[in-house]
Structures
1.
Amino acid sequence: MSVPATHPDAFLGPESVDVVPPPTNGSKSGPGNSPRNDPGTSPEGPRLKAVPDAPERRGSGRRARARDRLMDRANELHAPHPRLRGVANVENLLMFVDDDLRETALAIHRIEQFLLRTLGLLEAQDLRREHVLEVAGDTSVLDHVDQLNETLESLRRRLARLAARMK
């Protein structure tokens, strides 16, 4: 499934979850304290629960993750740097630079997904030949490496163009 780089789902990262331990033998039992009524446990053992939402922005107002900041640039109006005022057609050039940044980040994310898939395969308790062959035969990562190369080259060209227009 392809998601446009301007869509927030394009940069989904791993989700944070905590494991809630099962009740100990010393746990109080009673109405409301049984494992069946406890949202963090089940008769099968511990379950995953979502981590409470953390503040989305730092005290400075700037988000911590590069992916979030890239998406902010795509979705919010921002004034160009004062040194870029008066540069001819700078708005269009910066729009293309921002697009190259997002596309580059997306390619890196997809390559990282392949690496994590490979790591998960190697760490799996049930390592099978057919699973290794399946991951080894996945050539989509090569497409993402090509995309990364193309977007980095485009980004470098546009930055050189921006530098040439600056005073």
2.
Amino acid sequence: MHISLDKRSGGTCECCSTIPARFAYTVSPKKDDPQNQVALCDVCFADVEKLEQLDHWRCVEGSIWNPDPAVQALSYRIANQLKDKESWAQNLLDSVEIDEDIVSWATSNQSNQMIHFDAFGNTLENGDTVVLTQALDVKGTSFSAPKGTVVKKIRLVHDNPEHIEGKINEQTIVILTKFVKKN
């Protein structure tokens, strides 16, 4: 492990913060450089690619608030990968405002080059602002979003190019791309 990474982490795992760090994990697709690495313990390092120890990964509820971009990116990536299995992961993603560059970094390994288009064929990207082209009933809530509603800082759904995520009335919802226009 590089000296600067060991100094930054204080010799402790930057994910779980309880066990001494022994490994430098590079958050892909960045290069092997301490600023792109996270100091991990044996437990985190062994499971970071598989994410099988679901209870263990609740530690990212704390590490996502770390000021270091690499730690934020890895924490976001882990929560994003677990959001369909673990409700705490989706709640975490809904509660944090992470810089869009870090979100792009965190989700870059999951993108598979899927391109998202709005109703008019414009390419959508993380962080874009869109406008609803028709009124939408929001499932699971008591409100509907009227035509012309502005949705800022959208997130692309990495495994479905027809879906984006955005906040309406402080709730993160999935929106079909065929009902939005890039602003």
3.
Amino acid sequence: MDSGTTSGAGTAPGQLNANSFLFFGIALLILGFLAVGSQFLATMGVVIFFGALMLVAGVSELVHIIASKKRNKMIFNILSALAYIVTGCLTLWNPLVGALSLTMIMGVFFLFAGGIRVAYGLSHRDEERWGWFVAGGIINIILGMMIVMGWPATGLWMIGLFVGIEMIFHGVSWIMIAMTLKSKKA
């Protein structure tokens, strides 16, 4: 075996990263198109997943509190666990109302995520195709503004649509990075 030219799997060093970036980008692209095609289902999926996460987090914290040997000042931990459990249960009990609430949260998320993605792209200007991250970030900011300004009327479909669009642009960004890595190896 020629050390330094292949990895254990027979893939050139650096090629594994390009292939994994490409796979990740394609997966995001496919999931994004599925979400755009089924906006209401994607919205409900996000809401139900969020509710389940909140419930599991609350139960986990409650189990930790019960198992903990340290018993002083537990009231704040108990209140935190109960807040998670109640929020999770309410979201799972009525996902439509949860969708309206999460619509506003997602709007704020897209605004922050877009700003971070723009900053990431601008901090990598010395690399090829950095503009894809900036473009994706600008799209996120626009989507966030649309969610916040259209609330509550768009609460049942907008989360699914915008998550799908965000996944598409993020997937394209990773595909572009993979293509750049592959072209440098050729």
